[in-house]
Amino acid sequence: MAKAYWVATYRSIGNPDALAAYAKLSGPAIAAAGGRILARGIPAHVYEVGLLQRTVLIEFDSVEAAMAAHDSPAYQDALKLLAGGAERDIRIVEGV
Question: Residue limits of the DUF1330 domain (predicted)?
Answer without folding.
Answer: 3-96
